[in-house]
Design a protein that fits this description.
The protein is built from twelve helices and ten strands. With 324 residues, it is of the alpha/beta class. The longest helix is centred in the middle third of the chain and has 23 residues.
Length: 324
Amino acid sequence: MIFICGKNFGRVQFYLLGSPLFLWRAIHNALPTTHRLHKIFPHISPICIRCALQEEDVQHLIFGCPSSRTVWFASNMGLRIDQLPNDFSVIVKNILNDFQEDHRKMCFSIMWQIWKGRCDFYFKAHQFDVQSVIEKAQLTVYPKLQNVLIKQRKQHFDDKYELEKDMALLITDGSWDQKGNMGIAAVVYDPLGCLYNQVSKRGVAADALTAESNALLLAIQQAKSLLRVFTKICIFSDSQILVHCVNTRSVQDVPSWQAIQVVQQCIDELSDVQTITVKHAKREALLMAHTLANDARKGDGDRLCISQNQQDLRASGFFVWSLD
């Protein structure tokens, strides 16, 4: 049990699993993030080494980076990342005040594992694996879960989606709310599983299926523009009805008349292309695209991030490439 004091933080006590100093350093902005290191060594870039989108301060490291946001989304901890205060110490205080003990331990353990995963990514060139981060946090808090997690991991590997050798991977997702706001995203990985680029857009849509249709259209257009780089591209969407309609080249089964026109555009875009395929994958395999789509829906603009050779963010463990 350790004690932590900080500005406007009061004196609190809690269990911290992992590194006793990690949370203290995070609260006091003493973690060696690229933002902090840049102030000491100007030649070091302050930009986040995982996403290459923003400067990496503590807030971005733990909650703001798309890969960290994906961890919190997949953990089902109930944290509304988009509504968190900008002061990290206030977030910690809220967790201490509002969460039960096991949830507190889990939140702090996830923070610790995100930091460790980030360091392994930077210093050892290990992929930042969302599932591994969550499992390590769970095992720290609940050691008896070992056998359960082994079983889950086996199921995880049984659910892999196989791609042809030298085929690029594009995952896409759409986000929609009752006010008609839409966010769509497409994330491209090269045949080695490294992140190549990602694009997200904000707009309006009449319903969720129309948003998903626009996301698929964005993905198809991105894929066609990349055929000069990759010879074969496979697009994955979590909408079974859209995948079925595109592959059968029919809009008869589209239940939303608002989406029919967009689906027809998808079909037309693929009519003269033989090297782009569209397949279905469950949402858990598309968390990066799902997170970006949600961010776009809540944000105020479009984003395109070309990350060639800037990072080595690997594709989800759900996808494997054939060696033949």
